[in-house]
Design a protein that fits this description.
This protein is mainly alpha-helical. About 65% of the residues lie in helices and about 0% in strands. The protein has five helices and no strands. The longest helix has 20 residues.
């Protein structure tokens, strides 16, 4: 993974974490809502692993935001 990919994954993880926390959703609740295990969600939020497209969409849906919101790092 190069620096640009690493930075992107870190920003994405931070965005998911921020939306989840602001929504009052625990990792366990998000796991149930999107069907991704808690350990994988922790790695995604830490920016440690890439996210499959369908998992990305399921996370956005579970957080009740459009997928584009998760990659809008200007807000």
């Amino acid at each position: 993974m190069n620096i640009k990919e690493s930075h992107f994954l870190s920003e994405l993880g931070n965005k998911i974490n921020g939306i989840r926390i602001n929504s009052g959703i625990s990792l366990e609740e998000l796991s149930t809502l999107c069907g991704i295990d808690v350990e994988t969600l922790k790695l995604i939020e830490a920016g440690s692993i890439s996210v499959l497209l369908m998992d990305f969409v399921r996370i956005a849906k579970a957080l009740n935001v459009p997928p584009s919101t998760l990659v809008d790092f200007t807000k």
